[in-house]
Amino acid sequence: MSALLLSLPVAGPILAAGASAAVARSRRAQRWISLVTLSGLLAMAVVLLIEADREGRVVTQAGGWPAPLGITLIVDRFSAALLAVSALMLLAVLIYGVGEGGAERSPAFHPTYLLLAGGVAMSLVAGDLFNLFVAFEVMLSSSYLLLTLGGGAEQIRRGTTYVIISLLASALFLTTLGLLYAATGTVNMADLAGKLDQLPTGTAQAFRVMLFATFGIKAALFPLFFWLPDSYPTAPSPITAVFAGLLTKVGVYAIIRTQTLLRPGESKVDTIILVIAGITMVVGVLGAIAQDDIKRILSFHIVSQVGYMVMGLGFFTVAGLTGAVLYCLNQVLLKTTLLLTGGAVEYLEGTGRLSVIGGLMRRSPVIAGCFALSAASLAGIPPLSGFVAKFSLIEAGFGGEFWWITAVSVAVSGLTLFSMTKIWSGAFWGRPAPTHVPSRPTGRLPVLMGGPMVVLVGTMLAVTVFAGPVVGFAQRAAVDLLDRAGYVSDVLGPARSER
Amino acid sequence: MSIGLAAAAALLFGIGTYLMMQRQLSRLIIGIGLIGNGANLVILQGIGRRGTPAFIGDGDTSTMSDPLPQALILTAIVISFGAIAFLLALAFRSWSLTGADEVEDDVEDRLVAKRGGTSEDVDDAGALDLSGPNEPRS
Predict the structure, then answer these.
(1) Do A294 and A231 form a contact (C-beta atoms < 8 A)?
(2) Which fold has domain B3-104?
(3) What is the CA radius of gyration of chain B?
(4) Greatest distance between any 2 Cα atoms in chain A
(5) Helix (H, G, I), strand (E, B) or coil at B102
(6) What value does the CA radius of gyration of chain A take, rounded to a whole number of Å?
(7) Residues of B with CB below 8 A from A158's CB?
(8) Cα(A96)–Cα(A344) distance, rounded to whole angstroms?
(9) pTM for the full model?
(10) What is the pLDDT of residues A365-397, one digit of tens each?
């Protein structure tokens, strides 16, 4: 049962991608395949989430080979929740994409999109580092294609930067893997957790830093974030939304997974992580303030928000990780919704430049409402879900006596609010520039575009209402993340972990 | 652990990094390829016994090398082959669109940089106004 539950979320979308490519002539068939597959993925992810919350971890060994030899597939509460939220968001964006037209009209869109879903699911269930590497490659290869789908000069230019950076990160990942295997003779994460403890401390810490740098590129941490605000905004809106909501979060997930599991003990690396997190927050938000285009502002915010999650990790306490888990799940929803609203503004106005557009609140209250709620939540206005997440982080920071970084995070949150009000007053209040002619003057948004945004905002509000149970869940997830011995014995069996 | 292999990996990383500093896309892509192969050589270090094949017969394991790194490298080669082929296609597309084999600047970034410089421009204009009202700005 658990074998099926863990392998289907990966195999399903990938097989469906093949089927979708085979029926490339019929857009109708492609749409149905994507819709059914992603709905199925969402259903499976929810079952997996319930199962994971009941048992703690769901583990299976692919092909029946015992743990360090075979390929382990595993989800715990955090990865199951991330998978469920990602599946919801992938489904919502798919429907939005169908409504918007544009990129979705390309016959390559549906197969690539499904492959991306499969890659994301695979990274979340991977129990060994090499499998994680392959999963990242599946995910990234599809993202290369999605990013350059139009083939315009600007997209190609930005796509090239993105592909080169990703390939460099992959080479670094491979090098780390090679060295790890040479030092320990395994790439299974549970097995590595035990064997890293036996290495000299310096070597073990060097591996931690290498893994942090590798995933830091994917998660867009300072100083390796520069590719993100450059490449994301040019992609078609649904694609930017998916990238913003998912790709960096999967990078953060990989950081959290490896740094909690492969951490031999307290060391200076913890401080490095906190410092990087702090600079990432500040630089991201300052970059956002300097921009004029909606999607570019939001892209810089992705960077800034990643800093918060990594800060929660850097505390290495249950409270800190609770905050990081909440923040990460929340961000998937918020960032997607915000970029979808940005896309909807571009759809109606033909541009996202704040100096040009204006007065959208009257023309399209749905977009304005979705944007206002998500932006307020992102900035951490009580009682919205973003506040819950931010509050847990700040509480954890002060509780753990990490004064300065917590202070930085509070200050950054004020700046976040500032740049969100900049979008609000630029796009939704005021008047458009006199020379500006909107591309769709009626201001009518297709139901298929508005609906998914409303659903995502509704989910965010549901998280706000049920904040208590959600925080409880995040706490259990955080306890799991810090419980290395539990993870090891769940994967390798109780006998081996005692040794 | 073989010194030769380590030196070869270091050389590939070095040349690759140098090529990545260039502005021509074609050199960049070659650089990426070299770095990827350097990484593969690093993995190859993990096979244990040099010069012995993996899986020979079914007897004594002491005459075999560890097959796993070779499997990992094979996977990595296939992946980087695909990625570099895609990158070459991008480079070709970029060449046919712009006619140049260069990594271009981020236009939006230039705009922001320019905007940062406008205050200085205004100051200059003021200084010119003081020296002579009708003097044209070059």
Answers:
(1) no
(2) Helix Hairpins (1.10.287)
(3) 27
(4) 75
(5) strand
(6) 22
(7) 106
(8) 10
(9) 0.90
(10) 888 999 999 999 988 888 888 899 999 999 999
Check: CB of residue B31 under 8 Å from CB of residue A168: no
Structure tokens at A203: 């070597």
- Buried (b) or exposed (e) across B76-92, using 16+ Cβ within 10 A? beebbeebbebbeebbe
Query: Is B69's CB within 8 Å of A181's CB?
Result: yes
- State how far the Cα of A135 lies from the Cα of A14, in Å rounded to an integer: 11
B52-71 burial code (b ≥16 CB/10 A, e <16): eeeeeeeeeeeebbbebbbe
Show the tokens assigned to A367. Answer: 């977009």
Token code pair at residue A23? 């029926």
Q: Which residues of A touch B42 (CB under 8 A)?
A: 174-175, 178-179, 182
- List the domain boundaries for chain B: 3-104, 106-138
CA distance B5 to B136: 66
Is a pLDDT exceeding 70 seen at residue B1?
no
User: Which has the higher per-residue pLDDT, A152 or B59?
Assistant: A152
CA angle, A356 as apex, A350 and A359 as ends, to 5°? Answer: 85
- What's the average model confidence in pLDDT over B14-35? 92
**Among A160, A172, A175, beta carbon nearest to B103:** A160
How many other β-carbons are positioned within 10 Å of the β-carbon of residue A3?
Answer: 15
For residue A174, give the nearest of B20, B76, B112 by CB distance: B76
pLDDT of B120 strictly over 50: no
Q: What is the pLDDT of residue A226?
A: 84
Q: How far apart are CA A43 and CA A30, in angstroms?
A: 20
CB-closest option in A159, A166, A185 to B90:
A159
Chain A contact set for B86 (CB, 8 A): 141, 144-145, 163
Distance (Å, whole) CA A300 – CA A291: 9
User: For every residue of chain A, which 3-state class applies, written as one string?
Assistant: CHHHHHHHHHHHHHHHHHHHHHCCCCHHHHHHHHHHHHHHHHHHHHHHHHHHHHHCEEEEEECCCCCCCCEEEEEEHHHHHHHHHHHHHHHHHHHHHHHHCHHHHCCCHHHHHHHHHHHHHHHHHECEHHHHHHHHHHHHHHHHHHHCCCCCHHHHHHHHHHHHHHHHHHHHHHHHHHHHHHHHCCCEHHHHHHHHHHCCHHHHHHHHHHHHHHHHHHHCCCCCCCHHHHHHHHCCHHHHHHHHHHHHHHHHHHHHHHHHHCCCCCCHHHHHHHHHHHHHHHHHHHHHHHCCEHHHHHHHHHHHHHHHHHHHHHHCCHHHHHHHHHHHHHHHHHHHHHHHHHHHHHHHHCCCECCCCCCHHHHCHHHHHHHHHHHHHHHCCCCCHHHHHHHHHHHHHHHCCCHHHHHHHHHHHHHHHHHHHHHHHHHHCCCCCCCCCCCCCCCCCCHHHHHHHHHHHHHHHHHHHCHHHHHHHHHHHHHHHHCHHHHHHHHHCHHHHHC
Mutation site, B47, B72, B98, B119, interface A, largest A CB count within 10 A: B72
Which stretches in chain A have pLDDT values below 70?
494-499
Report the DSSP pairing between strands A57-62 and A71-76.
antiparallel
CA distance A11 to A17: 10
Instruction: Answer for the pair A163, A210: CB distance below 8 angstroms, yes or no.
Output: no
Q: What is the predicted pLDDT for the residue at A284?
A: 92
- Which residues are registered as beta bridge partners of A59? A74
